[in-house]
Specification:
The complex is a heterodimer of chains A (653) and B (319). Chain A has 653 residues and is an alpha/beta fold. Chain B is an alpha/beta fold. Chain B folds into two domains: 4-123, Glutathione S-transferase Yfyf (Class Pi), Chain A, domain 2; 139-288, Rossmann fold. Chain B has a four-stranded parallel beta sheet. Classes of the chains: A alpha/beta (653), B alpha/beta (319). The structure holds flavin-adenine dinucleotide and iron/sulfur cluster (2 copies).
């Protein structure tokens, strides 16, 4: 066996604290090593050429590169090696940067450690076996979870690119949060006017199959071949008949249902259509408010529906769809007002959230766009906005900035002045965060052209006095305390992950951060990928994000899917578990331990029961390998023999 | 009812300026079948002066008492005074968390404290250990005209990570307790606003201003009485009410009672037994309106009867 060792300087990253020449010298003495050299940047084109030439010249059959982390460049070097005709699994990498040169300052110790790391890699490489990936066909359909602006953009881009799209939206209509907004910053154009056409496109596109009022029940499979179970929740209205005429809503006697779309600004009926532009524009019953369900008698809507669409017996329905990739665009939530007791949130009706105010400003909202406060429907003249209400507050577990509130506060203050010219708006802020294109100009406009009073400081308490809300706070620029008698207080409530974000992540096998936002594969270089291949992210489910950023991610995720679907087959990773049928005693321990359900029982012709790994499901985690009492199940490329060779190299020589 | 037993730490003010708080605590807890045991040779909790000078010393003064309780074989000590409570909890938590600090403190003490005692307020055990039902069962008298503003003050539930009880911004324990004994409670926005605390001597005017805000908010909320959990709040709001009127040009005349006094009144004790006659602002007018609770029950039943036909009609209209 002839092993070649290539030691990288990585500029000064490695050579600065490791004596690479000495390492090469030591490597040449290792048993089996036929050639060792150093290079400035091994990953560069000439660096890779050098490897290829050395393989030919020195007749190498194993290659070790001692450089950075395999997460960085293992794939690159495997490809280099493969180009010379060697199996790519004959390549090993020794990490002498992240594990060595970057963390130690003592050059001599570092050099010794680098030598040992290479010793392990050489011994492992000598044990390596050729492995060959299998090819499998991909199902070129894509699932998009969430029909907000990010999800719709992704769905439309995929569909326009010729893919069949399954779009699953939890609520009765697509549109997400953007459908609730009045105008959008920084252009102050009407939100539904730019979103409405997209919603119509989604519903009319022949390649998009929309499941509204539906949720993901179960996800099975792997990139290229997923089986999805979708729960279509019972609407108690037959949508194939419903024309959206609204006759039922008008007659419904249960007038105190919670209005989810309007965030409770005004009550809704038990049977409802969330908003006039809803897609699909179909009615549904909220059973917890419906008299037919609570009291067992009513039937008013059934009596008045001209097409006989009402069906109180309707049950949830499970449908299955097969797809090859998934885009998650499930958006965000907002912290509840009653989590902010110092501001009287949830206690005083005239302390509302930004999204509630957005609905009050909206011409198709519950007040038809007339600004009135909830307590007595009077037009407020003094409005106080409180930024960072819950955001950047470690004490309630939300240390992060919610990203877009500074901007929408400026927008809402401008709109308030447009609606009520003799009104005064105050904004309490920590700092104004407006780094987008045209954004800072926008917040300046609010102050300079619209006379919005920005007070730098926090609010300590909000309480009622007569018909007014007293807002007490500090003005840290003037160094004084201030008290403002407000008619209405708007809290820019913190952005959170959706309540079911974690459950969905577990179904998808993707990771989430401590706050429930989904984690991208690399914060800079792979922003819409996840560490689960075939699953991509778009929009605010990955972190608070405004519309332009969400739309950008929607398109990016679609491009990623189109790119993997540009091939007809995918290669499976051969680094999976395999059972040696001669050794397996059929104890089934591995079956119980596999977190992916990748092992099944198999009966051999002689009647023996043994374990069998389902290749396409195994994720290569290796838990079974360490569980098996007889060493019958081995994770390829990380077998017991290979790992022991490394241990022996370190401990016995 | 099962007999309950607690080690009870009165603290210095409950033996002197706020002796009526102590009287009412003992009366109410006795009525609820709770036995109180006062530790022998208890001493100063440290209060404000100690911790403004030295944290180790402050903790030692508090821990001396906790060590006595520990030696009695108890794991809980209760106190009515929020300042004692805060001193105990602070010393206990820091000693439990920081081994070095514990050593420093114990070095000063004759008997070491081994961090085995949880301090709780009288309010907390009423809410958590006894519960609203037994509390309500003891009520014999009703106050039709009484409407209280529950005022918690600043420390009984703050900072939350130390006091570990109730909501720090909108506490409800006393509100709920008052409701349990049949007393009307108003939605009071200044539950945890500052009364001026211990600055009554050093910065009298500031304390008067702050306390006056609390009083006027109570009146705005429609209350005719404040209930408090802290004798220092009581002092600022009751004893200094005349002073407030002089400084601020106001004319407040609103009684301020300890929550245990209000409970005692509904349990049938006389104002003298509960020490209410010791207060500066007298509550006589309000107290006169007490009546047997049966009368209220009868009244409510009659009201319900009168309402029923209407309700029935409305239902018929709907269907
Ligand atoms: C008061 C306010 C004002 C704003 N104003 C502006 C503005 O002027 N300009 C601007 O750029 N941005 C603004 N924003 C931000 C804007 O709302 C977001 O940038 C945008 O909505 C993000 O889009 P999204 O598609 O990622 O998420 P969302 O809009 O939240 O959409 C997510 C969708 O997924 C669905 N969903 C959730 N979970 C599931 C699940 N498990 N299964 C299936 N479906 C699911 C939801 O029902 C929803 O339809 C504002 C936000 C607020 C709160
Ligand atoms: S359910 Fe019937 S009445 Fe209601 S909107 Fe649909 S068609 Fe109209
Ligand atoms: S390697 Fe992991 S996924 Fe594969 S069979 Fe073993 S436990 Fe299951």
């Amino acid at each position: 066996m002839r092993v070649g060792v290539f030691i990288c300087h990585c500029g000064n990253n490695i050579a600065g604290t490791v004596e690479v020449a000495k390492v090469a010298e030591a490597a040449r003495m290792m048993p089996g090593v036929a050639f060792a050299t150093t290079y400035m940047y091994t990953c560069s084109e000439p660096g890779q050429e050098e490897i290829k030439e050395a393989i030919k010249r020195e007749k190498l059959d194993r290659v070790v590169v001692a450089a950075c982390s395999p997460r960085m460049h293992e794939v690159t070097f495997r490809r280099t090696v493969e180009k010379t005709g060697l199996n790519r699994y004959f390549f090993e990498m020794a990490n002498i940067r992240e594990h060595c040169s970057w963390i130690g300052e003592d050059k001599e110790l570092n050099t010794n450690k680098a030598i040992e790391a290479i010793k392990l890699a050489v011994e492992k490489a000598k044990q390596n076996k050729p492995l060959f990936p299998a090819k499998f066909k991909i199902n070129k359909r894509v699932l998009v979870i969430g029909g907000g602006v990010a999800g719709m953009q992704a769905a439309l881009d995929c569909a326009d690119g010729g893919l069949d799209v399954v779009l699953v939206e939890k609520s009765p209509s697509v549109g997400g949060m953007m459908a609730r907004l009045d105008k959008t910053f920084p252009t102050v154009d009407c939100s539904i006017c730019i979103l409405g056409p997209k919603m119509v496109d989604v519903s009319q596109h022949e390649k998009i199959n929309l499941y509204a009022y539906s949720e993901i029940e179960e996800i099975k499979g792997y990139v290229g071949n997923y089986q999805i179970k979708i729960r279509k929740k019972a609407t108690y209205v037959d949508w194939s008949k419903c024309t959206g005429c609204g006759a039922c809503i008008e007659k419904c006697p249960s007038r105190n249902a919670f209005d989810y779309f309007n965030f409770g600004v005004a009550p809704a009926r038990a049977i409802n259509i969330p908003f006039p532009q809803a897609i699909p524009k179909k009615a549904k019953i909220d059973a917890q408010f419906c008299r037919q369900f609570i009291k067992g008698k009513c039937g008013v809507c059934a009596k008045f529906c001209p097409v006989g669409a009402i069906n109180y017996e309707m049950k949830d329905e499970i449908v299955t769809e097969d797809v090859g990739a998934i885009i998650v665009a499930s958006g965000y939530g907002l912290i509840d007002l009653d989590k902010l007791p110092e501001y009287g949130g949830g206690r005083y009706p005239d302390v509302i959230s930004g999204i509630q105010y957005e609905r009050i400003l909206n011409a198709s909202g519950p007040t038809s766009g007339h600004i009135e406060r909830p307590s007595d429907h009077a037009e407020p003249k003094t409005i106080v906005f409180v930024s960072c209400a819950g955001s950047r507050d470690k004490s309630i577990g939300i240390p992060y900035c919610s990203n877009f509130c500074c901007m929408y506060i400026a927008k809402q203050a401008i709109l308030t002045k447009d609606h009520i010219p003799d009104s005064r708006s105050y904004v309490f802020y920590m700092d104004i965060r407006s780094p987008g294109k045209g954004y800072d100009e926008f917040t300046r406009r609010a102050q300079e052209e619209y006379g919005v009073q920005y007070i730098r400081g926090r609010v300590s308490r909000i309480y009622p006095k007569g018909k007014k809300m007293i807002v007490k706070g500090a003005d840290t620029l003037l160094g004084t305390q201030v008290e403002i008698e407000a008619d209405l207080v708007v809290l820019a409530t913190a952005v959170t992950a959706t309540t079911d974000a974690r459950t969905l992540a577990e179904k998808l096998h993707i990771s989430y951060d401590p706050h429930g936002f989904y984690v991208e594969s690399h914060p800079k270089l792979r922003p819409v990928e996840t560490n689960t291949s075939g699953v991509f992210l778009a929009g605010a489910c990955q972190g608070p994000k405004d519309i332009p950023a969400s739309v950008g991610q929607g398109s990016a995720a679609a491009a990623k899917v189109l790119s993997i679907f540009s091939k007809d087959t995918l290669e499976s990773d051969p680094q999976i578990a395999r059972v040696n049928t001669n050794i397996c005693v059929g104890c089934r321990k591995c079956i119980g331990t596999c977190p992916f359900g990748a092992i099944e029982e198999q009966q051999l012709r002689d009647g023996r029961i043994i374990a069998n790994v389902i290749e396409t499901v195994c994720a290569g985690c290796g838990i079974c390998n360490s569980t098996c009492p007889c060493g019958a199940i081995q994770l390829q490329h990380f077998t017991d023999n290979q790992l022991l060779a490394e241990v022996n190299a370190l401990c016995l020589t | 009812m099962s007999e309950k037993e607690y080690i009870y730490f009165p603290g210095c003010s409950l033996e002197a300026s706020a002796i009526e708080y102590d009287m009412s605590v003992r009366k109410v807890l006795a009525a609820l079948g709770v036995k109180l045991i006062e530790p022998d040779d208890w001493s100063c909790c440290g209060s404000t002066p100690a911790h403004s000078v030295d944290h180790v010393f402050a903790a030692a003064v508090a821990a001396r008492n906790l060590a006595i309780v520990e030696k009695m074989g108890a794991s809980t000590v209760i106190t009515a005074c929020p300042a004692c409570l805060s001193a105990f909890k602070k010393a206990h938590l820091r000693m439990k968390k920081e081994e070095g600090f514990k050593k420093e403190v114990n070095a000063i003490l004759d008997e070491p404290y081994n961090c085995g005692v949880t301090a709780k307020s009288v309010l907390q055990i009423l809410v958590e250990d006894i519960g609203p039902k037994p509390v309500a069962e003891k009520v014999t008298l009703d106050f039709p005209d009484l409407k209280v503003a529950p005022y918690y003050g600043c420390i009984i539930n703050r900072p939350p990570e130390i006091m570990e009880f109730d909501d720090p911004e909108n506490p409800m324990a006393m509100d709920n307790l008052m409701t349990s004994v049949g007393v009307k409670v108003c939605d009071f926005a200044f539950k945890v606003e500052c009364c001026g605390a211990a600055f009554g001597v050093a910065k009298r005017k500031m304390v008067n201003e702050l306390s006056s805000k609390v009083l006027s908010m109570a009146l705005d909320a429609g209350a005719n009485c404040l209930v408090v959990t802290c004798q220092l709040c009581h002092q600022n709001l009751d004893l200094r009410q005349g002073q407030i009127n002089n400084t601020m040009g106001s004319s407040f005349n609103i009684p301020v009672l300890f929550f245990t006094q209000v409970m005692g009144l509904t349990y049938g004790y006389s104002p003298q037994e509960l020490g209410i006659d010791k207060h500066n602002i007298q509550a006589e007018g309000l107290l006169k309106t007490r009546r047997p609770v049966e009368e209220r029950i009868k009244e409510e039943q009659e009201k319900a009867k009168a309402k029923k036909p209407k309700a029935k009609k409305a239902e018929e209209e709907e269907s």
